[in-house]
Amino acid sequence: MNTALIVAAGQGTRMGPGVDKLFLAVGGRPVVAHTWGRFDACPDIDEVVLVVREGTAETFHALARAARWTKPYRVVAGGRERQDSVWAGLNALAPATELVAIQDGARPCVTSALIRACLAAARQTGAAVAAQRVTDTIKDSADGQFIARHLNRARLWAVQTPQTFRVEVIRAALAAVRAQGLVITDDTAACELIGQQVQLVESASPNPKLTTPADVAVIELLLQPRDAAEGSRSAPG
Amino acid sequence: MNTALIVAAGQGTRMGPGVDKLFLAVGGRPVVAHTWGRFDACPDIDEVVLVVREGTAETFHALARAARWTKPYRVVAGGRERQDSVWAGLNALAPATELVAIQDGARPCVTSALIRACLAAARQTGAAVAAQRVTDTIKDSADGQFIARHLNRARLWAVQTPQTFRVEVIRAALAAVRAQGLVITDDTAACELIGQQVQLVESASPNPKLTTPADVAVIELLLQPRDAAEGSRSAPG
Question: What is the ipTM of this complex?
Answer without folding.
Answer: 0.89
